[in-house]
Amino acid sequence: MYDVAIIGAGITGCSIAYELGKYNVKAVLIEKENDVSVGTTKANSAIIHGGYDPVPGTKMAKYNIKGNQYTKELCEKLDVPFKQIGALVVAFSEEEKKTLEELKERGKANGVPDMEIWDQEKLRKEEPNISEEAVAALSSPNVGIVSPWELAIALAETAVLNGVEVKLNTKVTGIKKENDTYKIDTDNGEIEARYICNAAGVFADKINEMCNEKTFEITPNKGEYYLMDKSQGTLVNHVIFQCPNENGKGVLVAPTVHGNLIVGPDSQPSAGEDVSTTKQGLDFVRTKALKSVPGINFRESIRNFAGVRAKTADHDFHIYEDAKNKGFINIGGMESPGLSSACAIAVDIVKMLGNSGLELDQKTDITDERKIDRFKHLSHEDRAKLVEKDPAYGKIICRCETITEGEIVNALHRPIPATSIDAVKRRCNAGMGRCQGGFCGPRVQEIIARELNLPLAEVPQDRLGTNIITGETKDGGAR
Question: Among residues 49, 238, 258, 318, which one is catalytic?
Answer without folding.
Answer: 49
